[in-house]
Amino acid sequence: MLAARVRGVNEVGTRSGKHREVNGKPETSLTLVPIPSAMEEGPIPGSRVRATTKHGTLTVDEIAAMQPGMARLMDELSRRYWVLYYAAKAGNWELAAYMERESEKILQTASVARPKYRDDIASFVRERLGPIARAVDAKDWRTFDSAYHRGIDDSNMYHDKYNKRFIRFRLPDHPPEWFDLTAR
Fold this sequence. Notes:
By secondary structure, this protein is mainly α. It has 2 domains: 1-42, no CATH class; 70-161, Up-down Bundle (Four Helix Bundle (Hemerythrin (Met), subunit A)). It has helices at 35-39, 60-65, 70-89, 93-113, 118-138, 141-161, and strands at 9-14, 17-22, 25-26, 50-53, 56-59. α3 (70-89) runs antiparallel to α4 (93-113), α4 (93-113) runs antiparallel to α5 (118-138) and α5 packs antiparallel against α6 (141-161). The chain is elongated. The termini are far apart.
């Protein structure tokens, strides 16, 4: 190996395999530049980083622009929260559990998409969806109903906190028509 003959270059064995070191520093396999030197260049602009799929090539900036904003995420969350309520009311605890888990996933995405909400989202998941999930697991309608409505109250409180007082979740007085909520 030519590089092995260069002064100061060593092959080092680790649990994950071998890597090369130059003067005691790890070296990247693509650039043959020590990692610390490569990292000093600073971040690469998203417009220069491209990903190619079978549908074409996109920049990281284009991919970032396609990510859902809070309006889209909250619209999906409100529909799942609606189904969650009526699934539990109908005794379809399996569907209710699914909708609760999906609601958590939407909120996880929201906390990544909008980091300024991350702490409040984590609190909501812990303090509101947590009790809902436990009530669903216990198949306890009374506890579920109470926890669910506390979730609506907190949702409205967070909208107030972030100057979105014009947004209020209202549980429709009927189940969604597109679901058969019968327990199986």
